[in-house]
Amino acid sequence: MSQVTTKNGSASFEAALEKELSELRAQGLYRKLRVLDGAQEAECVIDGRRVINLSSNNYLGLTTHPRLKKAALEFVQREGVGTGSVRTIAGTNKEHMELERRLAAFKHTEACVVFQSGFTANAGTVSAILGKDDLIISDALNHASIIDGCRLSRAPIKVFAHKNVEEAKQILEENKNHPGKKLLITDGVFSMDGDIGALPELCELARHYDCIMMVDDAHSSGVLGKDGRGSVDHFGLHGKVDIQVGTLSKAFGALGGYVAGSQRMIEYLYHRARPFLFSTSHPPAVVGACLAALDVLEQEPQWIAQLWENTRHFKAELARLGFDTGASETPITPVIAGESRMAMQLSDELFADGVFAQGIGFPTVARDKARVRTIVTATHTREQLDRALASFEKVGKRLGLIS
Hints:
The radius of gyration is 22 Å and the shape is globular. Helix content is 42%, strand content 15%. A 7-stranded mixed β-sheet has the order 3-9-8-7-6-4-5, with helices on both faces. It has a 3-stranded mixed β-sheet with strand order 1-2-11. The chain has a 3-stranded antiparallel β-sheet with strand order 10-13-12. The chain folds into 2 domains: 28-59 and 301-398, Aspartate Aminotransferase, domain 1 (Alpha-Beta Complex); 65-299, Type I PLP-dependent aspartate aminotransferase-like (Major domain) (Aspartate Aminotransferase, domain 2). The chain has 14 helices and 13 strands.
């Protein structure tokens, strides 16, 4: 039987999609996927061009670390390429449990559960622990995975201005008699601006107003704290944060997310977190690589030290050149360009000059705060960073962003 496309069927749907795409093109926001040819490294081949890579979350260069590659291969040889099941049926290998045990010890918590991604860790946890009778108090710049988890929970959401502790306090005071659970949630490091969350003050508010305190440490894992334990360790707040979310996809160099907290909460997520319940578990190679990444973090401190040395150098030179890098305090350093079209032009001209720094515009960031977001890694050499800075200077002057 042949398919018939009607005016009210797929043809109108395709027309609507084309209209949206045309608007993106008109706004300078339409982007084609950049294609990596080879390993995710500090300098690599993208779209056939060799470029200095300033757009990867591979903070410590662990995607190509020999110990991770060796572990991944060993696990594949021993256990195959997949598990063939969800965790709650036949997809929990002993190595899954060992990874969760190691992560809990790493984060100084009672227990931990691993999810398929950092996104599902956030969205699955918030939607599992809260319902329509509860209340969420959330930083305005929290990650999309937090926002989606909050919406899925159906709980009312109160948003406070970015890192505005006084506004958060006012919201909590106005809702101190709310009968349901209250969740206070923030990123540890904010992914677009690179600044660190106001954790000490928010933890104090959570204690005073009897809130669940939750921190998303995706961009803090492997970056902040002793051996990269994250923002909670960075501020010495162990025991004051109920839920710590982290990622295995960024500094850990592999794939996945995790939630660390009390044994009781982790057991609850085993039973109620929908991404955990309905997604096939991590392949053996990924589990092996994550276990090896923990070994590297605990035994090779030079990688985090080099990450921060590179970060300090790159930030200082961007500032010296006159670029606006916002409120960044971490290896995430935005170069603010203003309107989206200018940010995309900056990104494209840098790429033509051998530097890959992706442009980011509205709605990911405010309309007048479009930027290219740069991330240095531990494996960038000084020579590579200085070449990238020379390109920023040349292109920035040509576009009138610096004088």
